[in-house]
Amino acid sequence: MDDKYNKLIHLFEMAQRPENAEAMSAYLRGQFPFYGLKTVERRKLYKPFIAADGKAKTIDWGFLTRVWDSPYREMQYFVCDYLSAFQKDLRFEDVPKIEAFARSKQWWDTIDCFDQLIGRIAFVDTRINQLMLDWSTDDNFWIRRLAIDHQLGRKDKTDTELLARIILNNLGSKEFFINKAIGWSLRDYSKINPDWVRQFIQEHRKELEPLSIREGSKYL
Fold first, then answer.
1. DSSP states of the chain as a string?
2. Which of 117, 172, 174, 186 has the maximal Cβ count within 10 Å?
């Protein structure tokens, strides 16, 4: 693991682009340092690492934990891309490991990755539904955001009862990232069932924040 980790870090150090790093960090409000590699560059750099573990059909959680602990944001992106590549192999039993990542180094970019991972696990294990209800009332608003948006992209397979309950658990929040997530979840489902979204917004207009209504009504 150490050799693999050290090799990955060495590759990034050799390829880093300081001229890009400052702007990339500023985009995330200066919360994380960057090596300065843009998406195509970094994915090309670490593709062999993901491919090697994919060939071995083994998720190296110890390696991922060490990579995640790096201060550089590209390392968290690596973990997200790695787990996305192993999506079909992820199970409910892996959720605590994913949750540990989701509860640290939090910002919308990684949370929006994890909501997709968790949402797809739900297709093979309905125990996720109760977990998302639990997360929708968590003290950590990023975890609540993950629960709100974990059904994005499901289209006609969206569990509308679950979606409604999760949103209702978050009405009254003044947190921008929560109200934005509510709006996105409604907007996404409105592409398939605009009548349901229109009715939901109408029934809860007084409780929904203007941001959520604006985002949710975009395609209505």
1. -HHHHHHHHHHHHHH--HHHHHHHHHHTTT-S------HHHHHHHHHHHHHHHHHHT---HHHHHHHHTSSSHHHHHHHHHHHHHTGGG--GGGHHHHHHHHTSS--HHHHHHHHHHHHHHTTT-THHHHHHHHHTT-SSHHHHHHHHHTTTT-GGG--HHHHHHHHHTTTT---HHHHHHHHHHHHHHHTT-HHHHHHHHHHTTTTS-HHHHHHHTTT-
2. 186
User: Which residue is associated with the tokens 């929006």?
Assistant: 112
Phi and psi (nearest 5°) for 83?
A: -65, -35
* CA dihedral for 146, 152, 158, 164, sign (positive or negative): positive
Compute the distance between CA of residue 19 and CA of residue 32 in angstroms, rounded to an integer.
Answer: 16
pTM: 0.94
Per-residue pLDDT tens over the stretch 150-180: 999 999 999 999 999 999 999 999 999 999 9
